[in-house]
Amino acid sequence: MEQERKSEWRHEYLDGEVFPISGASRNHALITTNLVRHLSQELDERPCTVYSSNLRVRVPRTGLYTYPDVVVTCGEEQFLDEFNDTLLNPVLIIEVLSDSTKDYDRGEKFAGYRTITSLQEYLTIAQDKIHIEQWQCQKDRRWLLSEHFDTTVSITLNSVDVELLVSEIYNRVKKRALI
Question: Quick one: 48 exposed, middle or buried, by C-beta within 10 A (0-12, 13-18, 19+)?
Fold first, then answer.
């Protein structure tokens, strides 16, 4: 952790291996910014906090240390140590998919995220087309998938009791990229 705190670059850690995190595209950055802005506005009066990709999350069961694109907490936050830079109890995690990470974000990474007992909802958002996968944790710890392909609809985020318009998520994203 000490080395990561001093590093100019961010890395994911899993099983003693270090994986550098590359920069994001314009569409990726816009979608993330749109999400943080809208969620922050909606949650401003509530005991919830929205973080962008600069806050690390630890997945205890797998030992993964990662930087999700958007993380939301509600209530008392739990951190790994006094540095308050490694979150342990997210309720909502959102990943904006890239060609190089989409399989990992939907597969192994999501499998790890599902073991975080506080996590109630997980979204993956395509940046090259309108496609949002919304996974919601049920009371029996099964995960229910809903998919969204239309900019005219809204998504109900039950984990934080917020409605987001799909058009808000994709605001200013290059239209030619949305095939």
Answer: buried
